Amino acid sequence: MYRNALNVKRFLLLLGDLVAMQSALVLTLFLRYGEITQTTWNLHELPFMIVSVLWIVSLFVTGLYDISKARNTLNYFRTFVEGMAVNLLIAVAFFYLLPFFSIEPRTNLIYFFVISLLLIYLWRLAFNRFIAKHLFKSRLLYVGPADDAVVLRNLIAESTLGFELATILHTTPRAVYEQDGINWMNTIDDLPRLIEQERISAVVLGHGIEGYPVLREALYRSLYTSVALIDRQELEETLTGRIPLANVNKSWFLRHLRESEKMWFESTKRGMDILTAIPFALLSAALLPVVAAVIKLSSPGPVFFTQDRVGKHGKTFRMIKFRTMRQDAEKDGAQFATQGDPRITKIGKFLRASRIDELPQIWNVLMGDMTFVGPRPERPEFVNQLTEQMPYYALRHLTRPGLTGWAQVRFRYASSLEENLVKLQYDLFYVKHRSLVLDAAILLKTINTVIRQQGT
């Protein structure tokens, strides 16, 4: 239900961008020539439509179709301007490096860019203000512990995905009685009537209902309404993009991690990995002499860095990368890499930011040890330590590790046990939801990270 609403909102945002670009073309031609003839329109329609499609892809890479970021903030404006600046370069390259069309629209391209910049941003201001959070708004009734209701309330308040916590039916005593505009209840009188009165779209279950026969019967009667039943963990997944480990158990994983249903995906993905890895292997071979020379000149030590990592089903393999740290980086033993790690060389910072250091791992992809998208492989000594302290850590090894992953595009370097716990939640989200569509989205987000030099 709510996932469909998010897809509709994303489609409306994309459609609005296309309408803004087409409107920009109409205004461009009118301002340039004083009128729009059929000949003029025919000459510009197709090339500018192709440019518009390329711009849509670019904005997606920039992250501007992520509804969770739909906020009218300075950071959103900066991201938008950066994305449109890249779009201008794309348009220039399209018209002047790929001269398939008989026009070189210098003045028209400037007009089109400026007008598009204005119209698209005005549309997005309106979208963020009126549509992202308010269209198809889902009014929720939460049933569960009072303390957990407060946590969920705060998550929803920070979200722009269109949820509103209208009523809380708390099954434990309330500790806080602040006025928050939410209808707090502790008894069930007539749940179907309450659902209709409060215009509830979905009931969020904060725990199992087996031990609450009155609640179970009330929910059974609500089946005659159009209200949906949502698992509390599933809602938090949607809000945060990670699995909330504090609220799940082994039974939950048994219900949701069905590897038999992923066999087709894993087979298809393996074939795509091989086809995609071949050109990257050629690129890696071409860059090898240059990168090797730069690494040798920047610091003493070998060009390549090899290390044991844990792969699918806990199998250990030898991972290879271009060296980015000093030769004595682990003289005091194995340790987590950190943000701004002082052991990283100057050229190593660039290699990591551009992801060039990952190119030799194409060999691991060809050998079947790794894939392009998946949880990043961790070292055996860290895996043993983390498995002892973190429930479910081994579940991230249900699939092949990747060059990039959901945790990498959503979270920073994990340099402590607590941060590795958060990272694990993102990894398990990927393991549960992995698909070709999610892989494509992660690859596009990775490209955006590399372009913005935020890679580490």
Walkthrough of the structure:
- Strand 8 (371-373), helix 13 and strand 9 form a beta-alpha-beta unit.
- The strands form three sheets. The chain has a five-stranded parallel β-sheet. The chain has a two-stranded antiparallel ribbon with strand order 6-7.
- The two termini are 37 Å apart.
- It has 456 residues and is an alpha/beta fold.
- It is built from 16 helices and nine strands.
- 55% of the residues lie in helices and 10% in strands.
- It has three domains: 2-131, no CATH class; 138-240, NAD(P)-binding Rossmann-like Domain (Rossmann fold, 3-Layer(aba) Sandwich), CATH 3.40.50.720; 260-451, no CATH class.
- The protein has helices spanning 2-33, 38-62, 74-96, 106-131, 146-158, 191-197, 213-221, 232-240, 250-256, 263-298, 346-354, 362-367, 380-389, 406-410, 417-433, 436-451, and strands at residues 138-144, 163-170, 183-185, 202-205, 228-231, 304-310, 316-322, 371-373, 402-404.
- 30% of the residues are buried.
- It is flat and about 70 Å long.
- Helix 1 (2-33) packs across helix 2 (38-62).
